[in-house]
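ligand=flavin mononucleotide
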Amino acid sequence: MASLVVFDSTYGNTEIVARAISQALAAHGPVRTLRVNQVESGHLDGVTLVVVGSPTHAFRPSPGTQAWLANLPAGRLEGVRVAAFDTRVDIGGKPLPSVMARWFGFAAPAIEKRLLRLGGNLAGPAEGFVVATKLGPLQDGETDRARAWARTLPRS
Ligand SMILES: Cc1cc2nc3c(=O)[nH]c(=O)nc-3n(C[C@H](O)[C@H](O)[C@H](O)COP(=O)(O)O)c2cc1C
């Protein structure tokens, strides 16, 4: 299995999650980990698993992630296993943000939808990893949870 992990990250937290995911996938074959603005079309050649992660910005993927996904040609991920993740802020049960997040969502489901539209086969359900504040850090245990999530992708 050859994997490509694509991430965007403003404050470094999504990058930490992406690298934890890559570390777990490395047990199954070669892994390339690239920031979304570094990905070129050829990087997808020969790849059998693509994992895409973004911080949640205004309930959606980051602008860079949206632009990259929008520019991939139809069918580019045909036959490729795909999975999406995001980072999101801890809303700590505050009523208004909780309701808004439930209504408007997070980045990962939107990424997953686009990956499937491009022809990808779902390797595992979209997942979110929580940061304590907008700047981070990741909550305790989230990198371990990211590794565990990644370990389910090759065989699910
Ligand atoms: C412009 C902006 C909009 C954001 N909007 C949301 C949001 O809608 N929902 C959310 O959970 N977090 C939101 N956040 C917090 C980000 O999810 C958080 O900064 C990100 O997970 C940190 O990841 P990074 O260090 O990789 O940038 C927003 C942050 C920024 C900068």
